[in-house]
Amino acid sequence: MMTRTLFAVLSLLLLTACQSVPDGVTPVMGFDEQRYLGKWYEVARLDHSFERGLSNVTAEYSVREDGGIRVLNRGFNTEDQEWSDAEGRAYFVDERDTAHLEVSFFGPFFSSYVVFELGEDYDYAFVSGYNTNYLWLLARTPTVSDALLAEFLTIAEEKGFNINEIIFPVQE
């Protein structure tokens, strides 16, 4: 019985932690999911095991039948010389106009997806995970202006992300 209780408490703590938002990061309010849907290019990221070695990375968002959002991430594995796809599902943590979602690519395990900066025309997005180890610059085009890139790096550093670890995947 004690083991089950401990497991339940640890599971709840893990779920809560994975749905959290990094200190200093605030989800965009007034978020319009319909405008966010579609294809995005990954311009920059903090690298991590599930994207390591990938170039030409894109994310495509569409509506699921259950009201959630379908996430289709795609990238070219330069070592294996083949495309890699990962399909997931995302749901809003709170209100649908708050850009804080929980996303899962692996069964019942969810993690935070927080849009904390968004272009007025939904042409770029700064996205974090549940802590400052996860960061992306997404755009509707494969490249962005030097000014936007500088803004991304400045804001990321102000919010506690390690900008020295940011990589810029090839987009061809």
Automatic annotation (TrEMBL):
It comes from the Bacteria. Residues 1-22 form the signal peptide. Its main location: membrane. It is found in: Cell outer membrane. GO terms for cellular component: cell outer membrane. The keyword Disulfide bond does not apply. A lipid is attached at C18 (N-palmitoyl cysteine). It is a lipid-anchor. Pfam families: Lipocalin_2 (PF08212). GO terms for biological process: response to stress. The keyword Lipoprotein applies. Keywords: Cell outer membrane, Lipid-binding, Lipoprotein, Membrane, Palmitate, Signal. Residues 32-170 form the Lipocalin/cytosolic fatty-acid binding domain. A lipid is attached at C18 (S-diacylglycerol cysteine). One of its GO terms (molecular function) is lipid binding. Homodimer. PANTHER family: APOLIPOPROTEIN D. Involved in the storage or transport of lipids necessary for membrane maintenance under stressful conditions. Displays a binding preference for lysophospholipids. Belongs to the calycin superfamily. Lipocalin family. This is Outer membrane lipoprotein Blc. It comes from Enterovibrio norvegicus FF-454.
